[in-house]
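P.,

For your records, the input lines for the assembly:
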Amino acid sequence: MNLPAYNKSALVVWKKNLKSFWLIYSQNIMGLLGLGILTFFALMAIFGPYLVSITTLTIDGVTQVMHPPTSNYWLGTDDLGKDVFAGVIIGSRVSLLVGLAATAISMTIGTSIGIISGFYGKFTDTLLMRFTDVFLVIPWLPLMLVMAALLGPSLGNIIFVIGITSWAGTARIIRSQTLSIKERPYVERARAIGSGDGHIMIYHILPNVFPLIFANTVLVAAIAILSETTLSFLGMGDPTQVTWGMMLHFAFSMGAVSFGAWWWLLPPGICVVLVVLSFTFIGYALDEVLNPKLRRRDQ
Amino acid sequence: MRLLEVNNLTTYYKLKEGYVRACENISLNLDKGEALGLVGESASGKTTAALSLVKLLPENAHVMDGSIRLGGREISGATEEELRTIRWKEISIIFQGAMNALNPVRRVGDQIVEALRIHEKMSEKEACRRTAELFDKVEIDQERVREYPHEFSGGMRQRVMIAMAIACNPKVVIGDEPTTALDVMVQAQVLQLLEELRREWQMGMILITHDLSVVGETCDRVAVMYAGKIVEAGPTEKVFEQPAHPYTRALISAFPNIEGERYLASSIPGNPPNLLNPPSGCRFHERCQEVIAPCKTDDPASTELSSGHLASCHLLKRKVKL
Amino acid sequence: MGPVNYPGNNNELIKISGLEVHFAARTGFISSLISKNSSLVRAVDGVDFNLRRGEILCLAGESGSGKTTTGKAILRLVEPTGGEVIFDGENVLQFNRSRLRKFRQDAQIIFQDPYESLNPRQTVFSTVAEPLEVNHLCSSMEEKEERVAEALKDAGLSNPGEIFIRYPHELSGGQRQRLAIASALVLKPDFIVADEPVSMLDLSIRAGILKLMVDLRDKKGICYLFITHDLSLAWLVSDRIAIMYLGKIVELGTADAVIKSPLHPYTRALVSVIPVPKKISLAGRTLLKGETPDPVNIPPGCRFHPRCPEAAERCRDEEPLYREVSPNHFGACHFI
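Structure tokens returned:
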């Protein structure tokens, strides 16, 4: 008998899954739009900084201060004569990085707590869920501000603070799904073949809550990016980094509003809105694709 | 008296990939007080065929063709509004999942009373009296009208569903696997109840089931469906004792019979065809043990073997010719 | 394959005595305040039987009779609250965690619903390979592939290599149940609990699955506890049949004896409603009134007496003894 090597077939399985996923996803206009915007910003974050000259961001190259857009400075300059266009492009990198890293932390905590809580139930569940409730009811912005202030303004701390304050909702959602999955016969079957708790959680529960994690990740990412902008805007950001939030912060504190320097305020603001919107679009599209109950019937 | 006459009923489901030919050229008729069994395995189109009669179908279903005459009146072209008066009052349905069809947070009695008031324009008092009567008919304590669905056992809930279905004195009752989820003993109780009601009220009944024995116990005539088509139809004894179609034969021999010999019959090889792309010729030919050349290309016409006993198989024609 | 005959060997594999599964009934908050003693669900209430190597014993009964719970309790998928399960000389109920995991290589289960008992996100290969991986039974990838292919082939799935990367939803119902069987077989068990393995399948493919199970018994000497509500199926495949009612066995004997000459009134009623594929009238049947009562409120005396057509005064307060009425034919009724 000629057997395919399983390692090879695992790849085939992945391709197959991806293809069938794309087949449904590509029908969703909202999802495609979101994906398009996000791809644009991702490309900007990856390649952008190589395209703009870094000198335009240093104060040395100043010729004009607070100047409206010209052919040299496409989006004008700020109060120190730095190029806003270059700032927006370089800021995208940090903004996205902070968003994604914080999301990763948030999802890891949320998923682990959700699955463990739902799977073991009883005392573990009560304990973990009360802990989650604490994070749910504390207003996240003040908490974030306090933590950021205590830890000091560095990029790593910002990521940590956002990650640690945004997992509670995820944990709740994952827990409720785990509660229903652990009653399925295939989990009982897994026990019958001698699997331990860890194995069941990783190989049977996790893959089946994965669609939920996936869709939730995108929404948390949107919140994380918004949080980063908020923190930076409120002056808790890392002043050595150029991010959209920091740009807004400086624009606001240096009086861009009263000066009427719309070119300084609008571009980073619009970027934040677009990225958050794209994540939200993708999130809703994923929800529709991965949750068959929401999938519309073909006419 | 002929109650229902269905000719060439064809219903397709539209999918992205094309049409699922769920039931094709279904012809049935039903007399007053008669019970017809519509038997088939899962996905044979039996439920689609029956629900097409009152157009209780998913959005993507299209009734392509066919005439449905109810008491001499053509209803295949009826509008949604006309259908609403036909459903329940003239043709009512007993669904399989009794739990899903009842509102869990309302008293069982109130649900029937409300339905009666809307459909029959009865007064509150009248509807209550009628509901109590109906409970009596389906052998449930009248006091239980004040209970909630979850206080009823599976068999009792199915009785409530029957009470609802017969509330407006329908001419035809369609039972969609009414006893499938029930225990044998409860199943026997429910079937007996249906049988009594049918005799007493002279209703026509169409029983959709995958279980041949249910048909044997309650139906006068039976139609066997395979892959969207009726392959054999006739009086129940005739079909059970002299099955003409190879599929019917295989189905009957697959049924364990404690009065017969103790052996495991062989199963039908293969799986039912995909109705998106059904096989040419006879739809059963790929799994048929007695397949001959024309089966692969020509759709067999139905042959009348004896009065009212029809089957669609090329082998039969050959026998008739010889 | 002809009818299966009672092997008559005395090579006992499992001995179950006094098996009990009781659990506290969930009561509402208010009622738990009012009454101190919480009510007990006696799902399995003292069950005794044994299973021989290579035997198929059918546990039959209506829903709520405790037949599935009994099967799962033997495997400790549900924790028994009393009694003994002696498997090959050892008491399963005293196994610790690691011994229990090892026991699960010898004793497997096939579930009723092949649509629900297979992880939808696992391919055919990983479904069958998982038992091997969990128990660290294979040292190399090649060995694993070989054993998976062998199990799939044993379960009657031809061309195992081709379906390795399929998902359960791409298989038909019959194929899925074969896959479930393969994933039990891959551990080479001595004992399999088959919990209504064909009740979700179409009639035309049931026979194939049943045949496969009987063939595996003939070839590999696997012993089955076959749980079903369908007495005609029980009669077809099993050597012996045990009838359960409300957590207890009311009758046990060879398949022919139980079906053709039932002792207990409950068995007689069940046999009388066995469906037959022909035009019959419902008149000649013993229809029992009502349904199986809730295992929270088990009637005193003979637990069947409220529904028994032959109940007498004595049945109301005296519980009948479960005894050997004739050789190898047990029953629990005052009037047999």
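Two observations worth noting. Residues 184-201 of chain B form the longest helix (18 residues). The interface with chain A takes residues 14-16, 58-60 of chain B (CB under 8 Å).

Regards
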